[in-house]
Amino acid sequence: MDHGKYLRFNTGLLLFALSATFVKFALLKDPGQASSVVHKVRLGQHPQLDVYILSAFSLSSRTNANSLIRKGHVQVNGKVVASYKYRPSEGDIIRLIIPPPESPPKSTKKRIQQCTTKCKVVTVDSSRTLSLIHKPAGIGQELNAALLPILTPLLGNKTKSPKIVAPLDRAADGLLVVCNDVKEIEAVMDFILSATFTAIVCAEKDDDDGPPCLNDCVILDKVRSNTDGMLYLIQITPPPAPIKHYRGLKSVIKELTLNGFPPLGHAKRRCSTGKGLFISRSSLSVQDYRGELVAVGETARPSKFDALLLKERKFEKDEERGKDDDMTFGGIIFKVTPAVMRPCASSFSLVSTLISLNPRKILDAGCGSGVLLLSSIHNLPLCTGVGVDISPPALEISRLNSVRNNLQGRVSFKLCGFDALASVGALFECVICNPPYHLEKRYDRGPGFESRTRDPKIALFGKGDDGLDAYRELGGEFSVRSVLVDGGHLVVEVPHERGRACLREHLGADFREVREIRWKGMLRGMLYQ
Does the model's pTM come out above 0.90? Predict the structure, then answer.
């Protein structure tokens, strides 16, 4: 036998087997597949399984070890062990199966990308151990996954597994402290953190002295709000504390809330504008254990703070000027005083609906300043109308506005209530009405009640336990049904389903709902025939 040929043949088989093994190994190491690590138990006393694999495989925590055991990722001598109380013996082969990393869903990827663009690095300490990052409101846990792409352009290889050590609530804006390397985190947690918070708080009672002094509390500005009472822009500096014990934001919110000045947007004082929590960590300083300053950062207060104050200050100036003012609505200029209610822009949806019907004679029930009646007639050259109200001062303003717009020859006004429209003594093709429907006791609960009295209560608040008596009167025997011609229309403001149901019940079978009247997608009224 040719031994050389035999040797060459065996060598070829060996190389083929090795190449096949290498290919198989390469396929197993694909990032999308699970991998495993093997450890052989040596001599000595051995603790229970979770403690043993924690040290043997350098896991992050005992909780992580228990989780791997429960999920069946730990095998002893080829068999899955599901109990952490198992104690390994000498010579046992322990295999830890490492599951493949799960790719985040598309929505998470998008949030991480938004974090990378919206969050900015404010400062990095000289040793490149800590970074101060500014985050806007609306960013939460997804920021942890975005830290590496945020810090890498500045720090390069100096950052490894960065972690937030002084977090901030998702709804809050401000500065965060980030440890650039997770290996340094134990030393960093003993550093002393000082912070200053900027917030807008609202007074649950009308207190001109402002919020109580919480350590160092400075009132920067104050303004009376349309809906939230007195608002104060303040700066608060809680006492410094080690990073591992620092709970500044929660302590500030708790202290202010207990003293009757909760931050705007907090659970105890929801903001009427619906724009989140109005509190920001505006400055941070970090000192090491020797008292030396490590990092300092400062950021401007969010733009929504100034926008809200500007809006409320404009309202305050309007209130100081009083209500004797000129307004434009539906193409006419009319005067308003404290005796009448200022119309909302959404009320024009009623006027536009009436104009589309092209009536020749209309009645405005509860005309107030006459804005609905006069703007409708102004846009319908062949139309005449009558306005009725139970307030003599309101009727005087209506007459004045008709003269100012040269419409006095086409309109007339009469003192009358919703339940006595038959006393007008005429029939109309269309009736338009914006009755009072707000429930007064609801406004009594909030701090903005006194500011809403710029509108007369008789025009704002409905009578009855539910505030819907005006709708019941409109459906009465001597009301709308007694002044409409056959086939006539009723255009009425009904901004909620309660009023709609009440009106449907009292109008009965004589009227049918033609369509809803909407303003920017919201229900504002109904058209009946």
Answer: no
